[in-house]
User: Fold this.
Amino acid sequence: MSRTTLARRTALVVTCEHGGNDVPAEYAAAFRGAAKVLASHRGYDPGALELARRFAAELHAPLFFATVSRLVVELNRSPHHRALFSQFTRPLPEATRRQILERHYLPYRTAVEREIARLVGAPGTIVRHLSVHTFTPVLDGETRRADIGLLYDPRRPLERAWCSAWRDALLEARPDLIVRRNYPYRGTSDGFVTYLRRRFPANRYAGIELEVNQKYPLAGGVAWRRLIADLTQTLSMTSRTT
Ligand SMILES: [Zn+2]
Assistant:
């Protein structure tokens, strides 16, 4: 009798596309007078990098992050998406935009894709990719009624199961939280994870996005620290099982 069944192994990869609001010096002129926008949720995801770092450290997962502002180039959009460049960088000469892609977009996207390809290539391994984000509590005058959003593609069973399990674990630990699925965005909208789903099969790659309400990192203090601890603990419980 041959033993062809391989043990299933899970590999977690953590990414953070909107970790900072840096503007490289060579593009600073395009951002004159934009300090306020850069410091807002439009410039980056407050708290996301702190969260991503904690996940990666506690769960011994590789971490990929960017600290160049999404207003320079939007790492969570596909190359041909109209929102790839912002109002500040869209008017720049084509050569400059190409340089931005070559220096700040492609290296990040390629590094993550390569690492996932390497892990997917290991027999019996399921790659779980967690893309960490935070969302503004009020958008266009509308208050968003959620603390946590878990974004996935409902057609991919591994992602659906992972988000359900994580949501259940979170609500068990923190019944006071509002945890919603595919909120405040749909998991299937254009994004880095959406792109990677087309590269890797659903039974080997599960990519989800975590969205945390920025009211926690912006207020800081004990509530934010407690949320980080609870998210880390429940992620650890639900990211290893298949
Ligand atoms: Zn984000």
